[in-house]
Amino acid sequence: MSVDCNKETLLVSDDKAFYTLEGEGEFVGMPSVFFRLSMCNLTCEGFASEDSPHGCDSFISWSVKNKMTFNEIFKYFEDHNLVQKLKDGAIFKLTGGEPMVQQKQLLKFIGAFINKYDFHPLIDFETNATIMPDEKWITLYRATFTTSPKLTSNGDPEKKTYKPKVLKWHKDVGSGFKFVISVSEDIDEIWRKYVEDGDVNIPKSRIWFMPCSGSRVEHIEKAPAVAEYAKAMNVNFSPRLHLLLWDMALKV
Question: pTM above 0.85?
Answer without folding.
Answer: yes
